[in-house]
Amino acid sequence: MKTIFLTFLACLICFCGQAADKVSYTEADRVVFDRYVSEMKANKSLPTGELMVKTARFFLGTPYVAATLEMEPERLVVNLREMDCMTLVENVVVLTRTIQSENPSFETFCKNLQALRYRNGEIHDYTDRLHYTTDWIFENQRKGIVEDVTSVAGGVSLPVNVSFMSTHPDSYKPLKENPELTARIAAKEKEINARPYYYIPETEINRNATGIKDGDIVCFVTTIKGLDISHVGVVCRVGDKLTFIHASTTQKKVIVNEAPLQEYVESIKRNSGIMIVRPQMSY
């Protein structure tokens, strides 16, 4: 009985103040964070790209779990124990920035995560989260956290027409039976669609490989109606092979992808190419 009680305590969700917002995490997440800092503090002066790859490799074998951010009311969720493709990338970016900072504390990590995940770093409701990856890129480029280097890496113009969330509100619990939030999402979709974008077509990836650096974020462009990006990962090289680290839906864990990047993209029927986003150093 005592063991069960202690396990229950360890799994309790903790809430700590961060400005006016709350942070949801477990003690197990703090343990992972502390282990990361202990292992990586000697590497904090490495180039950002190299540190991104080391951070992504830190999570190899971590279970793939979708929809870990869904809480009502909307709040910042920290989960370093299980991830989908996007939360892996977010955690890797934020941990990299945190370890580069003068104060690599858990509180700094939470602050950086909220700044990355939410529009203007503020949480009021579900619509403040950066749900579409192209919007995530745009907003975080404005903040100086990442740089979209797709055009200089050999990209060509990409029309984007996102609409999936506003046209499928029943697929999202916070939007279901909430037309006001759905209308806000629809308005934001129009803004997203009006911006210019670039992508590297799937057949041109190897030709432009020199412009793709280790530690870059690779975003897989989809042809699914109403969506922009279907998957993301962290670029790495294994020997001369250009590939990536990602939370795999088929392997159900974080892996270094076995196939080269171009081969992987060409194997996915509804992938048309990639966008490349470069994390910037934390100052």
From TrEMBL:
<protein>
    <recommendedName>
        <fullName>DUF1460 domain-containing protein</fullName>
    </recommendedName>
</protein>
<keyword id="KW-0732">Signal</keyword>
<dbReference type="Pfam" id="PF07313">
    <property type="entry name" value="AmiA-like"/>
</dbReference>
<dbReference type="InterPro" id="IPR038765">
    <property type="entry name" value="Papain-like_cys_pep_sf"/>
</dbReference>
<dbReference type="InterPro" id="IPR010846">
    <property type="entry name" value="AmiA-like"/>
</dbReference>
<feature type="signal peptide">
    <location>
        <begin position="1"/>
        <end position="19"/>
    </location>
</feature>
